[in-house]
Amino acid sequence: MRKEISVYMVSAQYTGGDTGFSYTFYFMTPEPIDTQFGRIVNLICTHQNVPFVELNTNDFDVDIIKISKLN
Description:
Distance between the termini: 10 Å
Order of helices and strands: EEHHE
Strand order of the largest sheet: 2-1-3
Shape: elongated
Oligomer: single chain
Number of strands: 3
Radius of gyration: 13 Å
Largest sheet: 3 strands, antiparallel
Structural class: alpha+beta
């Protein structure tokens, strides 16, 4: 039996500090999205080259929308 994989659209907006950004990407996982939140934030930090501490202390919003399931 295959494990269901969900596809999410992740939209992040950061308006604090010296380097604001708006970033949208797609994320696939067989795990519940609430257990993947730290991994998603780490991807954003790595791609945007912004330390987690800076995101944590400034205005950072993340929207996660489930868009489909793959069997």
